[in-house]
Amino acid sequence: MKCYVMLSGRCWLSVDGVTDAVRLEQGDCFVLPRRFPFRLASDLNLPSVAASTIFPPARAGGMVTVNGGGSFSLVGAGFAVGGNHADKLLECCRPSCTFIWKRSGTPCAGRSSA
Length: 114
Prior knowledge:
Elements: E1 2-8, E2 10-15, E3 22-25, E4 29-32, E5 38-41, E6 73-78, H1 86-92, E7 97-101, E8 109-112
């Protein structure tokens, strides 16, 4: 699972298998409960770039700055779900399910494709 919080700026979140992209702004959060491709972009018409070409391998407490920083920043974490009932939890999350919490008033919006 991956979860992120937008600290500043705004961007688009596009997830494979989910029809509509979501505009994220400062204070918004999102959770990606499964490993499936997603994209964060200032402009969805720009070509995609693999994250591995930008970011170094993950390390505990690591921070990455790209192009000197700027007006966009987010904090994220990834974790594995294990144990006796992990499969039941993950079954509840369809392969293309994204949970988004909008700071602008909507307490929680779940998006998923059928």
